From TrEMBL:
The lineage of its organism: Bacteria, Bacillati, Bacillota, Bacilli, Bacillales. It catalyses: Endohydrolysis of (1->4)-beta-D-xylosidic linkages in xylans. The keyword Hydrolase applies. PANTHER family: ENDO-1,4-BETA-XYLANASE A, GLYCOSYL HYDROLASE. SMART domains: Glyco_10 (SM00633). PROSITE patterns: GH10_2. It comes from Amphibacillus indicireducens. Residues 1-326 form the GH10 domain. It holds the Pfam family Glyco_hydro_10. Its EC number is 3.2.1.8. Belongs to the glycosyl hydrolase 10 (cellulase F) family. Keywords: Carbohydrate metabolism, Glycosidase, Hydrolase, Polysaccharide degradation, Xylan degradation. This is Beta-xylanase. SUPFAM superfamilies: (Trans)glycosidases.
């Protein structure tokens, strides 16, 4: 039976999110199925620079070394985000907001240190994550970044990353990317960056999907819309939850046959779409390796298990695997 990376080797990279535990314990499974990895948390600002000037690169170094030793790419995730930021980043010594110039200086110092360290080795970065507001007509999500710097914090993040590594592919990354309203706002944001000559090379579609949403039509419309920008597309954080968003039930202790069947149907259609648009879509990363661990075990319902991948808790193929590996 073909492995995941073998099945798509002439189409797009197949990646998995890893963490400090799985990079140690799941090496055989990673080497078998994947040719790209992403740090689930360990390359976010909170983990890379927990205190000002104190950079902790050891886990990221280990992940990159594993990737290089095994012929894998590593996607850098992420440089500028409103979440998992260390508190000090936005505050002066009195706990007040720093100035625009000081926050730009701190943003540049962080990006310079991190991107320069891995220059020529990390070929794609999620430079800015989730800057678009989900609801209504407002384009930009409220955050300390936009409050203190303004909407052009995004422009600066990409410019600083490009200066640090001119050869790295720079991505804007977001979720709910296939919902028509948010799709249009992401499109406008990225088009604006391009129109201003900001160095951006790709759009990351997180693809945190489920058995019921988004529709195939909306996914295809999003892939087509983003493709109009002439940029690379990466699916960056794929998982297919067995629960609809907002379903807070806690009685399901293992996936039902119906769930697994529907999940297999959905995965087959998703990968058929990815294959159809492979000239634009160059990488598909799962936000984990197997059902043994997923961030969805605690989100959005604390303590509830989920089974979102094509490999089961033992790392063995699920019905969905057999529908995408042909
Ligand atoms: O699906 C969502 C729903 C609400 C908020 C954020 C997200 C997705 N947000 C992602 C998920 C997990 C984190 O590890 C990633 O870094 C982040 O990009």
């Amino acid at each position: 039976m073909k492995t995941l990376k073998e099945s798509f080797k002439d189409k797009f990279l197949v990646g998995a999110a890893v963490n400090a535990e799985t990079i140690e314990n799941d090496q055989e499974l990673l080497k078998k199925h994947f040719n790209s990895i992403t740090a689930e948390n360990e390359m976010k600002p909170m983990h890379m620079q927990p205190e000002q000037g104190n950079f902790t690169f050891d886990v990221a170094d280990k992940m990159l070394q594993f990737a290089e030793d095994n012929g894998m790419e590593l996607r850098g995730h992420t440089l500028v985000w409103h979440n998992q930021m260390p508190k000090w980043f936005f505050e002066d010594e009195n706990g007040n907001d720093v100035s625009r110039d000081e926050l730009l200086r701190r943003m540049k110092a962080h990006i310079d240190a991190v991107v320069t360290r891995y220059k020529g080795r990390i070929h794609a970065w999620d430079v800015v994550n989730e800057a678009v507001e989900d609801r209504g007509e407002q384009v930009y999500r409220q955050s300390k970044w936009i409050d203190i710097i303004g909407e052009d914090f995004i422009d600066y993040a990409f410019k600083y990353a490009h200066e640090a590594d001119p050869d790295a592919l720079l991505f804007y990354n977001d979720y709910n990317e296939s919902h028509p309203n948010k799709r249009e706002k992401i499109y406008q944001l990225v088009k604006g960056l391009l129109d201003r000559g900001v160095p951006i090379h790709g759009v990351g579609l997180q693809a945190h999907w489920n058995l019921y949403d988004p529709s195939y039509e909306n996914i295809e419309a999003a892939i087509k819309r983003y493709s109009e920008l002439g940029l690379q597309l990466h699916v960056t954080e794929m998982d297919v939850s067995v629960f609809e968003f907002g379903d807070e039930r806690t009685d399901v202790k293992e996936p039902t046959k119906e769930m697994l069947h529907l999940q297999a149907e959905r995965y087959e259609r998703f990968f058929d779409l990815f294959t159809k648009y492979q000239e634009h879509l160059t990488s598909v990363t799962f936000w984990g390796i197997s059902d043994a661990y997923t961030w969805l075990n605690d989100f959005p319902v604390k303590g509830r298990k989920n089974w979102p991948f094509v490999l089961d808790e033992k790392g063995e193929p699920k019905p969905a695997y057999h529908r995408i590996v042909k």
